[in-house]
Amino acid sequence: MSEEKREFSGGKLVKSIEFVDNSGYIPKARAILEVVGNLRLVGETGTGKTTLVHKLAELLNVPLFETVLTEDTTRWDLLACDVLKAGETVTRNGIVLNWLLNEGMCYLDGFNYAKASILSLLEPLGDFRGTVYIPELEKTFKRSNKHYLVISYNPAEKSGYSGTFLSNIATIRRFEGLVVDYLDATSEKRLISDLIKERATTTEAKRDAYDFASKFVELARKTRDFYKRGKLRAPLTTGNLKNYALLFATQNMHETDIIDIASSMYPEDERDQFKRLFEESGEIDVEKLKKGAEKSN
């Protein structure tokens, strides 16, 4: 069966993933997966952890089985549980069981919300044993060297660290990790500026591409700093910036209208502060930044 028609219960093949890797995450992450099999990604929201995982699955040409853990996720949600179907009790496979029944990459995002029962599930799966016993099926399942396991978490989300996570070194040590950070300012400005130039419907938008990119990247960096310090509830991500760039390039939307859209991300008591950050970003010397960028190129 061709790759395009291959189907996996609970999994999917991913293609054409765009990931800007100016920090060399891909070769290190791929090496960890191929040697250890278990990868841990640490980074704030919007740094590209999930995109990196999708890119790795594409490069390794394996199906991806992914889920986001919450405080309500149980061990049996991941493995198997009995459910009623057409008046009969049947066993529903969880994402981890579907991964074990196939091969590929299992991605558990939001790992700082994992309960102790989930941690105990991953310990034997993550070490030399590589097994899990499922009572409902009365069977032990074993992973192979083609079963890759990835976890990720956001260190800024303190509410998820319920004690067992921070103290359970037995689980964490089974995963070799990478700290994933946002794109550096120069790369992010280039990405946003190039996107505007590529998609712009007017000469004015093309002309103002670098100016727009400089101001909005600077704004994003400030929101990320405030987010880490607990002064804003969310940062602007590269994904947000790409959306704003497209609004500017294809819809000729004014910067102030885009800021109104962006401010809706924040609760009322943070919107004025967010808009002040943009006003401060608008005061930067764009021409000076442009000359510095040209020299670095």
User: Which strand order do you get reading across the main beta sheet?
Assistant: 2-5-8-1-9
Class of the largest domain, according to the CATH hierarchy?
A: Alpha Beta
* Residues in β-strands, percent: 15-25%
Which stretches are low in confidence, meaning pLDDT under 50 for 5 or more residues running? 1-5, 162-167
**What is the second-level CATH architecture of the largest domain?**
3-Layer(aba) Sandwich
Rg over alpha carbons: 22 Å
Any idea of the CATH topology of the largest domain?
Rossmann fold
What is this structure, in a nutshell?
This protein has helices at residues 25-35, 49-60, 75-78, 95-101, 116-126, 164-167, 169-172, 185-199, 203-207, 209-228, 238-250, 255-263, 268-281, 286-296; strands at residues 38-42, 64-68, 80-85, 88-93, 104-109, 131-134, 139-142, 147-153, 176-179. The protein is of the alpha/beta class and 297 residues long.
SSE layout and pairings?
Blueprint: H1 25-35, E1 38-42, H2 49-60, E2 64-68, H3 75-78, E3 80-85, E4 88-93, H4 95-101, E5 104-109, H5 116-126, E6 131-134, E7 139-142, E8 147-153, H6 164-167, H7 169-172, E9 176-179, H8 185-199, H9 203-207, H10 209-228, H11 238-250, H12 255-263, H13 268-281, H14 286-296
Parallel strand pairs: 1-8, 1-9, 2-5, 5-8
Antiparallel strand pairs: 3-4, 6-7
Helix pairs in contact: 1-2, 8-10, 8-11, 10-11, 10-13, 10-14
